[in-house]
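Please decode residue identities from the backbone states below.
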């Protein structure tokens, strides 16, 4: 599934109104949740074998991305996630990559090392490359295909979801994420 959409932006640079946010979400193919619900908390091991909880990231805007190293569209999306990470790494923003590879760290670690992606390694004490080899968390979030992304606000509330590939480094995505990071 491609994330291309025919909706065109009307030169939105800031999303000061709910309508502008809806337009940006629509352009990006993000399905906005009508009612904000708390994202289900979970604990998974990171690439350094430490248990990490979603609650550990409260106070940061979270882009929770379910992916796998074998997934073509995930691999295509990863450079865009890297650019997004580079742009906002000094802000209250984190990309949490949940790898559903059944082989776990055995395949994910070499893939990350070879690819050179750093969005799975945060400068804080947590590592956001998480392993879900049993698919427990992937199922908890009702993920039926990868990549699937959830946008979670600083209070742990789910804002919306995007199923399939997205160019997260395009202008509209940058504006959307910037506004979500700065939302009160």
């Amino acid at each position: 599934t491609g994330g291309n959409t025919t909706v065109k932006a009307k030169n939105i640079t800031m999303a000061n109104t709910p309508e502008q946010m809806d337009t940006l979400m629509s352009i990006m193919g993000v399905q906005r949740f009508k009612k904000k619900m708390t994202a289900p908390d979970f604990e998974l091991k990171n690439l350094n074998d430490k248990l990490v909880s979603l609650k550990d990231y409260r106070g940061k805007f979270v882009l929770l991305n379910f992916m796998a190293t074998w997934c073509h569209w995930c691999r295509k999306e990863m450079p865009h996630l890297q650019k997004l990470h580079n742009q906002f790494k000094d802000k209250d923003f984190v990309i949490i990559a949940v790898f559903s590879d059944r082989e776990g760290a055995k395949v994910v670690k070499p893939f990350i090392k070879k690819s050179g992606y750093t969005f799975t390694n945060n400068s804080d004490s947590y590592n956001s490359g998480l392993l879900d080899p049993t698919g427990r968390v992937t199922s908890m979030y009702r993920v039926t295909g990868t990549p699937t992304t959830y946008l979670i606000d600083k209070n742990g509330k789910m804002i919306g979801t995007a199923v399939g590939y997205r160019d997260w480094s395009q202008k509209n995505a940058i504006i959307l994420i910037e506004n979500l990071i700065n939302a009160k």
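Observation: The longest strand covers residues 31-38.
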